[in-house]
Amino acid sequence: MQNSYTPESTAVSQDGHLRFLDGLRAVAAVFVVIHHQQQPLPTGDKPLLLQLLYRFFFHGHYAVDLFIVLSGFCLMLPALRNNNQLVSNSPLLFFRKRAQRILPPYFLAMALSLLLISTVIGQKTGTRWDASIPVLPFDLFTHVLMIHDIFTSTAPKINGVFWSIAVEWRIYLVFPLLLLLWRRLGGFTTTLLTTTLSLLVWHVLSVMQLPDINLTQWGLCPHYLGLFTMGMMAAYIAYSPSPLCAVIQKKTPWLLLTTVFGVSILLATRFDTLLPWVYTDVLVGLGSVCLLVALKTGRFGRLKAWLSWQPLVLIGTFSYSIYLIHMPILQVIQQYLIFPLNLDALGTTLYLLFIGTALVICLSYLFYLLAERPFIPKKKTTYQQVSSISVS
């Protein structure tokens, strides 16, 4: 009997778009939303369900790691069609297109956050949102220049998730250089070199202990350049016409490696005092690489089909909007819907999990229609375009 979970039939839309990538974005975005819903565990007896939810969604940072790897993966796909060069062969045109795609929703989300702060959520209430207020002129200045992640005092202000937008924006600025290194040194050397140097930068800054320089999990994150390059490598292995990549793709036990890295991440999280957190991020990056290649090669057929499920794909298409505005929405929900009900910790968690998540997704879709979709380029890189790459 024919397998209903064929590698590409359920994962590629009629226009060839890789739907499982949107599914992964949706999972990562919803994970971050639920992570930011979690409240500190109450003292005394703790309901088992509350403990499980808190522990499972505690490391929302790992979802951001996945976003960075996915970003490298997706930006590398068009370059593979052009001999590892920018499609336009113009860094300035690439920067302009990235700015058009990323910056308008970011600034509109900032305006929305500031409006809500000035009207309904400008007072501290003991939630995660407290770190975002008050907003000082320097906070606004650094956010406009997208350097707010550099400073501990400014990174969480206005909207606590904006730090990663600044990190990713700087990575875009060096993407043409990464492609140049890719052509000169090769993909594997470039990935190893970039990852090593980015970790070295983090260690040097840690030793220097510069005042107010933000080296936390929601800060500068120089090692994200390495994770981004890992995403490029995943695309290279999965779709490059190189004979070496074909052998690696076929012979490597991707399913086993994904499992091994998954277990390693759990162990590193459990014994986090023994290993700097940036190395756990590297494990997440490597695990994401293995997962992406495994999905492409059909090793996770059922998972790939589930990630290609249309409702999940739809959520993934506006995951950027979900990420941008979910925190102020959650604060409005807590402050004006939950607090008046005087719910206990478990009741608050369940309310946010089901009603809060649904409201965030619905309102984020409206934001997407108004503030994101108008700036999305019409033409997408398709699976057929990528898979038809031939050796020149």
TrEMBL record:
Protein name stated in the entry: Acyltransferase
Domain (Acyltransferase) ranges: 19-368
A single BP term in Gene Ontology: lipopolysaccharide biosynthetic process
Organism field: Spirosoma agri
Record InterPro entries: Acyl_transf_3_dom (IPR002656), Acyltransferase_3 (IPR050879)
One GO cellular component term noted in the UniProt record for this chain: membrane
Superkingdom as given in the UniProt entry: Bacteria
One example GO MF annotation: acyltransferase activity, transferring groups other than amino-acyl groups
Keyword field: Acyltransferase, Membrane, Transferase, Transmembrane, Transmembrane helix
Keyword hit for Acyltransferase: yes
Residues annotated as transmembrane: 56-80, 101-121, 161-181, 188-205, 225-247, 254-271, 277-295, 307-330, 350-371
